[in-house]
Amino acid sequence: MSVEQPLWQALTAYRVLTLLYALGLCVYSFDDYDHPIGAVVYMAVLTLWTALTFRMVASAERCTRRFLVGDLGIAVTGILLTPLVDSHDRIAEGTPTLPSIWTMGAVLGFAIKGGWRWGASASTVVCAANVIERGGFAQDTVHMLSLVWVASVGIGYVVEVARASERTLARALRIEAATRERERLARDIHDSVLQVLAMVQRRGAAIGGEAAELGRMAGEQEIALRTLVSTGLVTRPRTGEGTEAVADPGALPDVDDPPGPPRPPGPGRSDDGPCDLRALLAPHAGSRVTFSEPGAPVLLPAGVAGELAAAVGASLDNVRVHAGEDAHAWILLEDEPDAVMVTVRDDGPGIPEGRLADAEAEGRLGVALSIRGRLRDLGGTAEWISAPGQGTEVELTVPKASAKKARQKGEAAR
């Protein structure tokens, strides 16, 4: 709902309440008017106008300029008719005009619709009409009109600030949505294309000959694609004679083996019903990967389970690269009351201090997007515990409350 919508709702109620107040004043002063019939006729017109235009002030779209001008005309007409139906002595004493404080509703309509400039213009017209009705500047009139002018300008300025804030927020949300979608695509690219290019580059260099040239080109394209998905800027591959653009073999997310099976679909999949996370993690088990699971199903929305399983797969990819083919890995799945935790531990050499930050700065996407980015989008966390010579442990945690929200979001999107 728009920030200014409550102001329109308040204005709708204000017009009704002030109409009742003006009608009460008319009834109370009926015997004091010089021409009470004229006052009754005007109040009947004012009541009919308010009833017929009740929905016109319900929103900015319905409140047109033509209506605002007509509304202000009704108010000004009532102010100028007051000397014709009321006595000069009563007017000199400061007796309210026929529309009384209902007039302020017409001014506020201008302020909410067009900002402080419209409010200032409308309040100036009302001030001029009141001066004409009183026959000059009286102290109480000046005080009242000053309040009307200040209130209309103040509310108009607040509306302008609220609209500017809404536009800024909308731009920020669009940027955030685009960034998240870009990160999602980057994860998918890392889990497939970049790993294939890295494999071709290494195998080509190992085979030699024409395959080495093919590997060199694959390495150049890997660098260009990695730069594109991490920064949005494309770097032209170096193709000079004798110049090789090779990926850093020590980078965290690269793999030396062909990529595994395709990752499970993410939160955007159409089928987001309950899924047993054990079934997605079990295929990772093997001679060098031990999988420990609870005895009961660990149910998560399918999209959440798929993303968590993909993060586990990326963690195992890093184990194969940095701990070596002879390293052993352990996957521990824990179903806590408030969260689901997956721990991936290996007996490799560990990660040197500061290497994760350096890899992310270099545009390596394994940790930044394939693991940490996925968990962040799920409302969870990814923590690394490592020391040189003592292996590495990755703790992936997804709160069940966040998983529930993700499921509800998927159902709403459908």
UniProtKB/TrEMBL annotation:
InterPro entries: DUF5931, HATPase_C_sf, HATPase_dom, Sensor_HK_TwoCompSys, Sig_transdc_His_kin_sub3_dim/P. Residues 181-221 form the Signal transduction histidine kinase subgroup 3 dimerisation and phosphoacceptor domain. Residues 234-276 are annotated as: Disordered. Keywords: Kinase, Membrane, Transferase, Transmembrane, Transmembrane helix, Two-component regulatory system. Pfam families: DUF5931, HATPase_c, HisKA_3. The chain crosses the membrane at residues 12-30, 36-54. Residues 1-170 form the DUF5931 domain. Residues 258-267 have a biased composition (Pro residues). It comes from the Bacteria. Residues 308-401 form the Histidine kinase/HSP90-like ATPase domain. This is DUF5931 domain-containing protein. It comes from Streptomyces asiaticus subsp. ignotus.
